[in-house]
Every structure is written in structure tokens, then in C-alpha cells.
Amino acid sequence: MLPLKHGAITRILILLTLMAICCNSLALAADNNQRVVCYYTNWSVYRPGTAKFTPQNINPYLCTHLIYSFGGFTKENTLKPYDKYQDIEQGGFAKFTGLKTYNKNLKTLLAIGGWNEGSSRFSPLVADAERRSQFVRNAIKFLRQNHFDGLDLDWEYPAFRDGSKPKDRENYAQLVQELREEFERESSKTGRPRLLLTMAVPAGTEYVEKGYDVPKLNKYLDWFNLLTYDYHSAYEPAVNHHSPLFSLEEASEYNFDSELNIDYSIKFYLNAGADREKLVLGIPTYGRSYTLYNPDATDIGAPADGPGEQGDATREKGYLAYYEICSNLKEQSDWTVVQPNPKAMGPYAYNGNQWVGYDDEAIARRKAKYVAENKLGGIMFWSIDNDDFRGTCHGKPYPIIEAAKEALLASTDVGVNDIVPASRPRKPSRSRSRPGSTSRNRVNTDNNNEIKASFKTSQGRKVARPSRIQHTSTATTTTTDDSLYIGGRTTTPQPPTTPDPGADFKCADEGFFPHPRDCKKYFWCLDSPSLGLVAHQFTCPSGLVFNKLADSCDYARNVICEKQTPSTMTTTTSTTTTTTQVPTAISSTTNRVRITAAISRNTYFNRGTTTTTTSTTTATPNFLDGEEEEEEEEEEE
Predict the structure, then answer these.
(1) Those residues with Cβ within 8 angstroms of residue 521's Cβ, 6 or more apart along the chain or in another chain
(2) 87, 127, 240, 609: least buried by Cβ within 10 Å?
(3) Kind and range of the H or E element at 142?
(4) Closest CA to 304 of 255, 233, 375
(5) CA torsion angle for 290, 293, 294, 300 (degrees, to 10)?
(6) What angle do helix axes 399-411 and 361-373 make, rounded to 10 degrees?
(7) What is the pTM of this model?
């Protein structure tokens, strides 16, 4: 062997040092994933007016992981949509997973279970080895077919409620082990990224001790979604805040309320054997409301006379979305807001005999900082559709989620957000069901292994709106290939900018907006952390135009369109003395319309008909029939 020169030795030492630093940073990355997990409830699409929330309302750069709540499973041990009409026929699954076309790092999971599912199906399933085996195989098939990145288990709760058995604890952990092992086996055989496996777990210690084998679950789960809210329900005899960070009273032998707080729950899980980086802390974007027994007694612990009045949108007693709460405070001067302990809990507000406790931006930041200080695995929100997603109260959308996310990333020296890939559509079926409760139906999700935050925008790339028909829009941006892996934590890539070559469109707000000169085109304005509001341009499928009232592509007869489009341009022929219009149909095209993320339900129900696009001599406006989403919900199929 020839002796190495001094310069070569130096270079080798530098290389080895760099490799050591790199490996160390990757190890730290694996230990410090900071997740921003958001649950989406598929029944929020049935809420009235501006409260209606669909996957198209989701900013794909807001969360690192999105969880679709809920799916279910059958007696034949297969996963199934909870609401076939919304999930399949209306393309709920496809639109949801299609958000990944914008943020390649986004992960989408399907949650199964929830409060309404109970134990009657879960307990027999986990107790039977053959049924577990069938369920595992079928789950992989269903998740892959619908382009989900993982499964969130939300059994509420093993060894509790009707249908439970004492052995649920052991059997549930066994199901998790078999799911994880089969997920890994499928990944190694196919070369696809392993499916994620997460679980929604209760904050109450009695539930945990009786139904959850924490050490074994910790071994096989990617992380736990802690339901650190509903420490108090609206049906208790005294008013209380449902999600305190710390105890509001001194701990003592007989003061059991001192255990009902997030800090106590986190310490309990750590002592039970959970890794801190696998604990994702839940933050509510809703409040719990009460009817006061005496309107003059409003302090924490005051007597309650049942749950509070239902909100106009959520329509459930004792439960108010944050946008309902903040709208009441903004529009009604009679409400009084009290914050007796800002370090320990969110505020509460009262008006007459109505009382509501909720989390605001300040306590959301404190909870996120708590996560960072304790090196936990991230933050989770129940749910994305309960936050002020239209920004009506504070002039910005998602104030609770954004406040917590910014505080988390600031505390961990990381940049902002992240999101996921596209999905293949399923053929629509025709059955329909309606959801139940709007509150305790949860699911959890998370990200797989390490996540790369890619700040890459390819020049001239086509951008597809999450839908069954690909709508094209040209992205003319410079390419910056900075595939960054920052401390093992997820950051959000910037959305591709898609300027319209014919118009300088400026986004005034987030949402969908018509093209100023072409009725077939529209813009989706999304907020990017460093670029601000960015306009993404899309073109409706042939024969359709953009309907701002429905925020979707629709038949021209349903839309008032005063702009001329290529199909409605006037054609003229000149002679030496006069100009005459040519009243002939230049083209006649027959198109079968398929349901897409950008097609309204009205269009879907007319999908069996054909549309004829004809050039005419003048552009004649079409008129909306006046009835919008709510009337369409009740249409006969």
C-alpha cells in the first residue's frame, strides 16, 4: 500500500467528519419530528352556508399530516367509507388525497372508528386471529386503492363501553403489531413507502390503564395522537374548561380534578413507556358550552343546567366551533370574555345564561411551546374545519392552527409547513348515508419515517387541482433545487406560482376566484409562508365555466358570465360595403362529464346527458337559478 500524502489524509479526515455530522443530524432528525396533524371531518360538508367545509377548502400547506375522519369497517373485515355519497360519489377521498399534488411532502391518512363506532365491531375483530389477518390484508388494499398514506386507529375505547371485553387491551395491541409488520412487508416487496400507522388515544388515565398496552403500542406505532381535550364535558353539573394545559388547582390526595390537564396526561404516558417524540399533543379548535344555572354565577365551577345552546353551523348542544365563538364575540357586544389563568388554560366567555370555554391563539401558542420544550412529537388539531377557516374574525384564516404552528416552528428553529401526493379516482357508487355526532368522532395520522422538505418548483410544470379530471395550468417560475432536511422536522415547501400570461392577477384573499377575462378559467389563491398569497390558475373541463357562487365548474346555464370566451366570440365577414355576421355553428362537441373536484353536484346529477358547445354570434349571459348548495343537498337521486 502506498503511503498517503498529508493533503490526502486531511481531506479524508474532513470527509469523515462531515459524514459524522450528517449521520448525527439524521439521527437528531429522526428523534425530533415536529408534526402538524390536522383532522378533517367528512360530515362538515353538510354544514349550512359559509360553514360548509370540503377538502377543497383545505390549504395543502397548512399541515404536515391530514387525517380523514372517519372510515369504518365491515363484518367481512374490510375498510369502508363512512359516507359513500360524500367519500366516493362526490370524490371526497380523491379530493382529499389529491391535495398532495400541491405539497409533495404532505401525508394523508384515513381514520377509522370514532365515538359513534364504539366497541361493538372492534372487540370481536381484534379477538379473532383469522379476522385480524383478513383485516390487515384488506386494509392495505383499501388504503392503496384510495391513495392514503396510512391508517389512524380510533377505537373509543377498548375494554370500555358496550361490546367491550377485558382482553381488548391485549388484542388491540396484537392487531397493531400485525398491521405494522404487514405494512413493512408490503413496502419491502413493492418498493413503495411504508404505510403510516397511528392511533388516537385518550387523555384519561383510567381508559389508558384498562385498554392500552402502551409499551407494545409504542413499539409498533409511528406516533400517538393524544385526545388532550374534553377533560370536562358539557353534561357535567359545573362549568369548566375542557382542555387546560396545567391543573387549575393544587394537587392533593382527594383532588382528582388536578389530574385532568394536559401536563398530567403527558407525564402519565411517558411513565407508561411512550417515547416523547411519539406523543402528538391535541389542541381543540372548538369550545364546550354550558347553560348556567344562575346567570350571575359565572366563575369556573359555577353550577350548570345542562349543555349550552347549539350553534347555527355545528348544530350540537354543548359544542361550538371556534368560528362560531369568535363570531359571537365580534358581533354581539353582550359577551364578556374572562381569562383567569392564561398560563394554564384558554379563556371562557358568557352572555346571559350561556357559558363557553375555548382555546384562543394565546393558549394555542403556549401549548405548542410546551411541545417544543418537552421535545414531544408535534401538535394535532381537532379539527381543521372548526377553526375560523374563512378568516372572518381576525382577518386571517385558521388563526388557532397558524398560531400554534408558528410557535412550534419558532421554538424549534424550523421554517413553516408541508403536504402530499395525488390519488387515482374511484368509480362513484350511488348509495348515501348521513353522519352522526359532530364532536367525538376522531382519527389520527402521521408521517412516515423521515420527511424531506423539498423547496423545488420545476419550470413549466403542470399543476393539477385535486380532482378526477386533471385541470392544467402552467407554472412559470425559476427552479431552486434545495431538497432540505432540516433537523428531522418537517418544513413546508412553497406552492408553485402560476401566473396567467394574459393577466396580472393579484390575490386579495385565499379561495377561488374567476378569471377576469375568461369564464372557463379560475384561480385558487393559497397562502405561502414566504411568498404570500399565490395564484394557481386552472381551466374548467370542456363545456363548463367557473361558477363563483358554488366555487366550482358548472354548466354555463347556471352562471352569469359577461366575459367573452373562445367559444362565444363573434365571427364576422366583410364585404366592400357591409359587415355581416356568420350565424352558423362552427363546432359541435359532445362530452360526457365526470365528477371532479371542481364540478358541482348539480353537474354530477346531469352527468348522463350530453352538452353541445356551439359558437354563436353574440355572447349571451346565462343566469343562475338562485338556489345553491343547500337546495342541492336535498335533490332526489
Answers:
(1) 500, 514, 515, 537, 538, 539, 540, 546
(2) 609
(3) helix 129-145
(4) 233
(5) -50
(6) 30
(7) 0.65
* Cα 372 to Cα 379: distance, rounded to the nearest angstrom: 10
Q: What is the largest CA-CA distance in the chain?
A: 104
Contacts 24+ apart (CB under 8 A), 19-26: 25/485, 25/487, 25/488, 26/450, 26/485, 26/488
Burial state string for 468-489 with b = 16 or more CB within 10 A and e = fewer than 16: bbbbebbbebeeeeeeebbbbb
Catalytic-residue membership of 156: yes
CA distances from 390 to 206, 330, 507 (A): 38, 15, 15
By CB atoms closer than 10 A (0-12, 13-18, 19+), residue 615 is middle
* Series of mean pLDDT values for 10-residue runs along the chain (637 residues): 48 44 34 82 95 96 98 94 93 96 97 90 96 98 98 96 90 99 98 98 96 99 98 96 90 73 98 98 99 98 97 97 98 96 97 98 98 98 98 96 96 52 32 37 36 29 32 32 30 36 68 86 72 75 79 80 52 36 34 33 34 35 34 40
Task: Write the Ramachandran bin of 29: left for phi over 0, alpha for psi from -120 to 50, otherwise beta.
Answer: alpha
Tell me the C-alpha distance between 367 and 361, whole Å.
Answer: 10
Q: Which residue has the cell 383499501?
A: 142
- Tell me 454's DSSP state: E
DSSP-based three-state secondary structure for 72:
strand
Q: Are 348 and 341 in contact (CB under 8 A)?
A: no
- Inter-axis angle of helices 168-190 and 129-145, to 10 degrees? 50
Q: Give me the residues paired with residue 320 across strands.
A: 287
Tell me the backbone φ, ψ of residue 267, rounded to 5 degrees.
Answer: -65, -35
Q: Beta-strand (E) ranges in 556-593?
A: 572-574, 579-581, 590-591
Q: Using alpha carbons, select from 61, 89, 113 the residue that is nearest to residue 534.
A: 61
Strands, E, within 370-424: which ranges? Answer: 378-382
Phi-psi region for residue 435, left (φ > 0), alpha (ψ -120 to 50) or beta? beta
462 class by beta-carbon count within 10 Å (0-12 exposed, 13-18 middle, 19+ buried): middle
Domains and CATH numbers, the chain: 35-285+359-451 (3.20.20.80), 452-637 (no CATH)
Residues with Cβ within 8 Å of 253's Cβ and at least 6 positions away in sequence, in order, are: none
As a residue count, the chain comes to: 637
Cell numbers that stand for 240 in this block: 369548566
Catalytic residue among 117, 156, 186, 324: 156
Q: Cα separation of 194 and 137, whole Å? A: 14
CB 323, CB 307: distance < 8 Å: no
At CB < 8 A and 24+ separation, what contacts does 343-349 make?
343/245, 343/246, 344/244, 344/245, 344/246, 344/247, 344/248, 344/261, 345/241, 345/243, 345/244, 345/245, 345/246, 345/248, 346/241, 346/243, 348/239, 348/241, 348/300, 349/325
3-state secondary structure of 449: coil
How would DSSP label each residue in 270-320? HHHT--GGGEEEEEESEEEEEEESSTT--STT-BEEEEPPPPTTT-BTTEE
CA 43 to chain centroid, in Å, comes to: 13
Helices (H) and strands (E) in the chain, counts: 14, 26
Q: Give the burial string for 56-81 (b: 16+ CB within 10 Å, else e).
A: bbbbbbbbbbbbbbbbbbeeebebeb
Please give the C-alpha separations between residue 484 and each of 72, 455, 456, 489, in angstroms, as whole numbers.
37, 7, 10, 10
